[in-house]
Structure formats: C-alpha cells, structure tokens
Amino acid sequence: MRRRAVLAGGLALPALARAQDFPGRPVSMVVAFPPGGQADVVARPVAAALERHWRQPVPVVNRAGAAGEIGNAFVARAAPDGTTLLMALSSLAVLPEAARLFGRPPAYEMEQLAPIALFTADPTLLVVPAASPWRSLEEFLADGRARPGRISYSSSGNYSALHVPMAMLAKAAEVELLHVPFQGGAPALTALLAGQVQALASGPGPVAPHLREGRLRALASWGAHRPAGMPEVPTLIERGFREAEYYIWAGIFAPAGTPAPIHEALRAAMAAVAAEPETGRALATGGNTLDYRDGAAFEEFLRTDSARLVRAVQRIGRVE
Questions:
Q1: What is the CATH number of the domain that holds 49?
Q2: How many structural domains compose the chain?
Q3: What are 180-226's pLDDT values in tens digits?
Q4: What are residue 106's phi and psi, to 5 degrees?
Q5: 156: exposed, middle or buried (Cβ count in 10 Å: 0-12, 13-18, 19+)
Q6: Helices 185-193 and 204-212: crossing angle, nearest 10°?
Q7: Rounded to whole angstroms, how far apart are CA atoms 237 and 243?
Q8: 72: enclosing H helix or E strand
C-alpha cells in the first residue's frame, strides 16, 4: 500500500509541475463552426481575455463541418495536456445520440470531454425578416399549418443547435416546416437576411445587430422566461408548448484525462477572465449575457440540459 501511494505521488508530481507553469505555450480554442456563429462570437472575447491573463496566444481555430461533429471529435481525441480546448454549443450532447438513431458509431462520446466552464446560456430566439407578414408566433404557426412544408428555415446542420429547437417547435405545434441546413450559424443567418429562407432559430448574439437595426423581428423565445431587454417577445412555454425549451449555451471543454492540476488551472483562469468587467462588456457587445458557472454548478447544468436534449432528439427521430 505504501509503495503504491509513493508511486501515485510520484506520478502526480510531473502534472503538478506542468500546472504550475501552465500554459507555457499557446492554447488553441477550437470552434466547431465557421466564423460569425454563436460559438465563435463567445469564443473570441474569451480567448482575448485569456491571452491577457496567460500572456500567451490563444488562437480561435474554426473546424467546421457535420453540424459541429468534426470539431467536437477533434478535441475529444486531442492530447489531454490543456493546450487544446473546445468552445462547445448545446448540440454537444445531441450529436452522439443522433448518430445512434442512424445506427452509426458516434464520432465522439460526452465522456471523452471534460467540462471546464460555462460562459453563456441564452434562450434561443425565433426570428423572421421584418418585411415578413408574420407579426406574432400565432400568425407564423397558422400560416405554417395552412401551407405545410412551404415556410423554410435555415440551420447549421441536421441536429445542430439551430435545427433542434425548430424541430421541437414543429413537433409540439404540429406544423410542417421546410428545413434548409447550412455549414454553420453564420451562413444560416446570411441565408435568412438574403431572403433564401424565411425563419431561423438563433442565439441572441448573431441576430442582435439585425434586431436593433430593424432588419429582423423576434416572434418567440425557447427560454423559461422572456429574454432580457425583450419584454414583448413571448416564450413558447407561456404559449402552451411546454416541451419547447432550449438554450444555446456556450462552454469550455478539455479532453477527458486532463490531469487534475491542469484542469484546476484551466478552471481558475476561466473564473478570472469571467470576473473581468471587460469580458462581460465584450460579450454584451456581441449580444450575449455572461452566465458563468464552473465546477459542480456547470456539471449539474450539463447533466440536466443534456438529458432534456437527448429526449428531444428521440422524439424528433431520424432526419434525412
């Protein structure tokens, strides 16, 4: 027993030494989507704050494809040394379950990623062009029922963070909408602004400037409460769709197996940059609200939200 304890202590010493010098070299922050989407607009101010804190480069690396699956899997397989991080969205737990629906082995499992810190957890907004004929959720749904499959919406891919909430609404409201997937949130928003599609579910960050400028109109929110600063926008829950609750959250993950001292160094750094007023201001400028959680609080949030989303995917079923 004593020999095993000595060996364990000896193995822990190198990790502790690395943590004391951490990071000592650049740390990549992977975003599994193209620039301009929700994960990207949260990652960039956080990465900038970490660069100031660590005095090391923290490049944001966009590894887009397969609704986020490619970038998520890349980090899940990365060396667990703390130098490759993932700014993940709520679709993180959805994609492995979607793969199982099709009988495919998932590209990664949640157990391969270690949660570090949550930065935002914004309710999703249903937005349409300001020139559209719908001025309320009820008008939108009534038109959708009158013209099945004729109202189109864009997303960042099948089972992505922009697809699942719309699929949840369509299922709950018994309305058939036309899904048009793109490679990421930014192309999906561009398609809406260009008139290629007619609706979009989005986190507030990417659409906030267009709402302020009057180019888009918000019809509803998937949150439990009306969105901050938008008291006129009802929630789907208050409109009777109790199963339609969805948050586009953004949080930092490291590969599982990252040594505990490095994991704690990462958590401490995230807490420090979240406490800087400049970080909150930068996120707010991008239309997001800082909602920082780490440790047990983030783990509990992740468990609860992931369980809700897995149930939603099972209800939605296979999407070709």
A1: 3.40.190.150
A2: 2
A3: 999 888 999 999 999 999 999 998 888 989 999 999 999 999 999 99
A4: -60, 145
A5: buried
A6: 20
A7: 7
A8: helix 69-76
List, edge to edge, every strand of the sheet that includes 199-202: 178-181, 152-155, 199-202, 125-129, 216-221
Residues of the domain holding 152: 125-221
Helices and strands: H and E segment counts in the chain? 11, 11
Nearest to 226 by CA among 302, 103, 296, 137: 137
Residues 113 and 30 occupy one common structural domain: yes
The last residue of one of the domains, among 202, 221, 240, is 221
Note the pLDDT tens digit of each residue in 50-71: 999 999 999 999 999 998 999 9
Beta strands at 113-123 and 247-255: parallel, antiparallel or unpaired = antiparallel
C-alpha to C-alpha distance for 200 and 37, rounded to whole angstroms = 13
CA angle 48, 50, 56 (to 5 degrees): 95
CA angle 194, 198, 201 (to 5 degrees): 100
The answer to the question of residue 17 being in a domain is no
Cut 0.90: pTM above it:
no
Residue 236 structure tokens:
């789907």
- 107 and 37 both lie in a single domain: yes
Tell me which residue has tokens 């197996």. Answer: 257
Residue 52 placed within a domain:
yes
CA distance 246 to 211: 20
CB 36 within 8 A of CB 191: no
Side-chain half-sphere CA neighbours of 2 within 13 A: 0
Would you say 236 and 245 are in contact if contact means Cβ atoms under 8 Å apart?
A: yes
Q: Is residue 146 part of a domain?
A: yes
- Residues 28 and 48: their CA atoms lie apart, in Å, by 12
The residue among 183, 206, 221 that closes a domain is: 221
